[in-house]
Amino acid sequence: MIKPALVAALLASAAPVLAETHMIASGEGAQERLQEALILAEPGDEIVLEAGRYILTDGLSLDVDGVTLRGAGPAQSILDFTTQQGAGEGLLVTSDNVTLRDFALENPKGDGIKSKGADNIIYHRIRVTWTGGPKAENGAYGIYPVESTGVLVSHSDVSGASDAGIYVGQSSKITVRNSVATDNVAGIEIENSRDAIVTQNYVSRNTGGILVFDLPGLPVMGGGNVLVTNNLVAGNNTPNFAPPGNIVAGVPRGTGIMVMANERVWIEGNVVYDNPTAPFMVIAYTQEYEDARYNPYPREVVIAGNVVDDGASDPDLPGGEMLLAAFGGMLPPVIGDGLNDPKGAAPLFVDAGLAGWSLNLQRQGQALAEAQPGPLNVPAPGAAWSLDGIGAPPELEARLK
Amino acid sequence: MRHGAFLALALAALLASIAGARGPARVDDAAVLAGMVKNLSDYGFFADGARQVPGAGVAPYALNTPLWSDGAEKLRFVYLPEGTQLIADGDGLLQFPVGSAIIKTFGFGEGEGRRLIETRLLLHRADGWVALPYRWNADQTDATLALAGGRMDLLTPAGETISYAIPNKNQCKTCHSKDGEVIPIGPKARNLSGEWLGQMAQAGLLDQMPDGADSLPDWSTHATGSAAPLARAYLDVNCAHCHQPGGGASNSGLDLRWEQDDPHALGILKRPVAAGRGAGGHDFSVLPGQPDTSILLYRMNSAEPGIAMPELGKSTVDREGVAVVRRWIAEMQQ
Fold this sequence. Notes:
By secondary structure, chain A is mainly beta.
């Protein structure tokens, strides 16, 4: 007969090492204590940031798979980088299956949280705030996953980024939902990425609300399969405060939803209000480039079933006043540029009831000043596409439950 | 700064020690292969740690063009377990056997006034390289493991007071990483002297003289030497560990490796991607003939977090490096 105690011992020895919880408090030595916990964590461990303000002088980093970093809430556990002296971001994550939730970063000197090559990452109830409001000296990106497969950003809040608040770059299988992006140059930007869903976000007081871009000369290109639905994109009218030289520095103040290059972007069910340059802008890449792999044109961008105001009454465009006069004091809600991929699909499909105007450019890279504005004449949307495989993998949503 | 004479002497001592019986200061191979010992002295890399006198099996080396770290003096060593050797791989990284170690000590100050700050170890284990930082104590008797890094105020040779950052274990990996694996950066055959490689080969510690060895210029010629090779060597050594495919900054599309010859990849007329305010209002990483409107030089020439490049291991501007890269961009055909 086997004794129960022995059975228990056998079971215990067969079980995997239990995941541990490491509690971290603010105060003296928080930098070293927190960084050491991030280094020594084992896969499956949870590091808990107790409520408090953590004064940090250097960027933090996590390179262990499967770790959860959890605070007491985005108003309670605050990583304060106001006196940061080094590193390019507040927190760098380079491992897979990481969950970041319920804490805040304030005033990081560079980016907020960057996750690079970090597959299946969750950002949940994360706040990144530059507390001085929109300033060119603020860091570029608030939430910055790049080169990753599987990204879920939910219930997060970024304000003050001098580039994009929530920026997903060179990634795939992405969901950005139920989040708030205010007072950034770009609220939410999906760049050189595929299979992305941007839904149910509140995007306001940025220079541009939601941007879907594909840029040349990067390791990952060919952005597309992007769904932008049911967002509130309102009052994006902050003067562009991006440092010149960056691509978003060219985004006009007052842009709602903007697509540059990309294939298959479906924009539906959004409320797009009070974006005085353009509720919608769909254009080719605007600059010269040398990259044979790159397609600069938008292909199959669909604008369907959105709630939109009558148009744009204060455009941040060259010759804006003349444009307004020509269109009777109000620019129609959709801007196209008249360019299309000579070998590819049509660039743009818009509901029959939604008016637009075209820059009528003759070639890619042509200056906006050479536009010959006229009415936009594009077909109406066809049947919806299959959305299989778009968005963050289901296991990320499951991990949050 | 090169330490030719010192190196030759130390190397001779090393070779003698390997040829003859090993002294008592043997390296603890078990400590190299597993775990994280608390004290640097526990490894036994040094016969005299405070004076940085290497022990048996530990060979000093220098680089033609070194990584700049706020002007720190760096003392570099390799440790090879008995009966092993380095394997040449063209002009690239020497291949290190499991059980070997690369040791780099950072010091500030001249002569008797020199203070050792930290010693960084790369330990080659069965499952890959491990990077560990050790911080020297105030008495300079030993260094202890500093997993979370740290900061200390000190004066650079250029006379600037800085808060010097000892990297944490993860930050080691920020630079020493390619495709997610930790790798050495420094000991590439192209950046090692032919003399050193020859001595190592002769002693049986290197399998053969690598092709393309010793091809990077000697940085001590920076003031007058030809700008292009010096600048390209500087960018390779100081930037390319991140700015290359598979490196920490691969998403920038900038590739500053010595062997890269595509102008766009090198930043020439390349627009910024995620530079933010690091772009400094400029349109291109490198604008031929226009160093003052080139983002690459702007970021090298800054010490401000969020703008400064490199992001780690730098609190002040490397005036020599900036001057060379400035010359390179200025001489470029417009």
